[in-house]
Amino acid sequence: MARTFIIAADPDSAAELVRMIEETDDQFQVCNIALSVKEAKAFMAFGQFPELIISDVVLSDGLSFDIFKAFPGCAPIIYCAETNQHALKAFENNGIDYLLKPLERNKLQKSLKKFSQFKELFSESKLTPRKAANRLFPYSATYKSSILAYFKDQIIPVSLEQTQYIYYNNYQVTVHTTDAKFETRDTLNNLITSLNPRDFFRANRQFIIQRKSVKSIQQYFGRKLLVGISTPTPEPIIISKANTTDFLKWMEGVHSPSYSAIPLFDKTARLVG
User: Fold this and answer.
1) Percentage of the chain surpassing pLDDT 90?
2) Within-domain flag for 255
């Protein structure tokens, strides 16, 4: 099954595309849906990429190209648009096909078949889907080594080597080291995209934690996990039931979480960003 991530302009478009995929080819499994640039980036920020992306070009908060600038080489993409205006740019941004709306089932089928042929070719070469995508669309990940923070009217770089956790509360994000706290103007969503996923994990909506700072993991109510780190925190760090598997794999050094890292879109509920 090819894990497929849908990025659509509205819920109706998303539901229609899911229906067409299900009726066209059962080899494609929709793993998640986003309805904006922001939601798509939130999903991709967890470091696990789908095998295929089907994306509208025009979204409520911008063009989908903004997503793939932040995550180059993430996966082959089938773009959908009202006009041909963005076709050239689409093929410059991981595009393997460009479909005009309203979508026609036979054309979508051809696009899915094209992807399957690519996948089969790379499978014969013993390449993983991610490596195959990287060969088509060169990608070299670069991560921050420090975060710019504000301290006593100064802007200073805080080393990520010294960072224990990053915390969000009351619209403020703070970077915590062993013995100090610094304010940053960035958001957790933006920060997690620029941090090495081997070292940092988005524990929940409040915390990003450093792996080497984790000192204890305890079972918690409702099959959640309570995480203790080497530095005191303003509130307990709770890993949800949906994220426990990803977190434990991350602690073992497997830095690509599964698709449960963000709640899945089930055709009736919006993705929670």
Assistant:
1) 49
2) no
Q: What is the pLDDT of residues 145-166, one digit of tens each?
A: 888 888 777 888 899 999 999 9
User: Which residue, 184, 214, 185, is CA-closest to 199?
Assistant: 214
Report how far apart, in Å, the C-alpha atoms of 74 and of each of 23, 70, 107, 183 are. Answer: 26, 9, 23, 31
Domain holding 165, by residue range, is 146-212
Name the more confident of 41 and 273: 41
CA distance 17 to 137: 25
Last residue within a domain, chosen from 212, 235, 265: 212
* Reported pTM: 0.48
Instruction: For 125-178, give the DSSP string.
Output: TT--HHHHHHHHS-------SEEEEEETTEEEEEETTTEEEEEEETTEEEEEES
User: Using an 8 Å Cβ cutoff, are 53 and 75 in contact?
Assistant: yes
